[in-house]
Amino acid sequence: MPLYEIQHICPLTTAQQDELAIAITRIHSTKFTTPKMFVNVKFTDAKEHVTYIGGKRRQGNHILANVRVGPSRTQKDWDSLCAEIVGEWNRIVPMPKVKRYLCTMEWRGKGTQWVGMMWLTFLRGRSAPDEDHTLRSCILLGGLIGGYEAGFMIPPAGGDVQWMKDNWDEFKMKAQSDEEFKDMVDEVEERGLMNGAGKSSKQKLEEALGWGDSA
């Protein structure tokens, strides 16, 4: 349901992409009632993209997300989501590690010796010193008002539980031959998503009233 796009100008290894996708999926699905199967993460190599920041030609690493919003989602909730994602980026895509060694070189002239000193820098890690590995922005766009995904219409914010109940028989039928749906059915049962497990009384009341407690 949510769609996260990671626009990166620094190279990301397959392992880093896997870790970022898993982390974002975990953060979103556990903060709300969205099954992991419906959390989408897309990577876009933006190295050759022309972008401007402050009217000047600049590049950066960005994460953009289209999510469903509801009245019960506060600014604090979204700030917390962003902070967790930024924390995972900083853990998975570290800045270059640099180790310096001091060495001397000698130049000999006519009866005179000059000794020059220079720094040799050896990079250790997965990046070059001129690559920008900082995450410039994590922007959440609340413009996801509907859609179709994996054979089903996307429910409105706050309607996940009823949506799962309405489609449960079809989910289980698909799970017999589709690994994605099997994983989803197992997750929903394990987390107790259809019976409101892990929710406060306030959250259950808001969901019963059709307010947007899920994103």
Enumerate how many helices there are, as a single number. 5
**Helix content range:** 25-40%
Overall morphology = elongated
Average pLDDT for all residues:
81
Commentary on this structure:
- The chain is α/β, with parallel strands linked by helices.
- It has one domain: Macrophage Migration Inhibitory Factor (2-Layer Sandwich), CATH 3.30.429.10.
- It is built from 5 helices and 10 strands; from the N terminus they run βαββββαβββββααα.
- The chain has a 4-stranded mixed β-sheet, covered by helices on one side.
- A hairpin with a 4-residue loop joins β6 and β7.
- The longest helix has 18 residues.
- It is elongated.
- 21% of the residues are buried.
- It comes from Dothistroma septosporum (strain NZE10 / CBS 128990).
- This is Tautomerase cis-CaaD-like domain-containing protein.
- It holds the Pfam family Tautomerase_3.
Please provide a brief summary of the model:
The chain is α/β, with parallel strands linked by helices and 215 residues long.
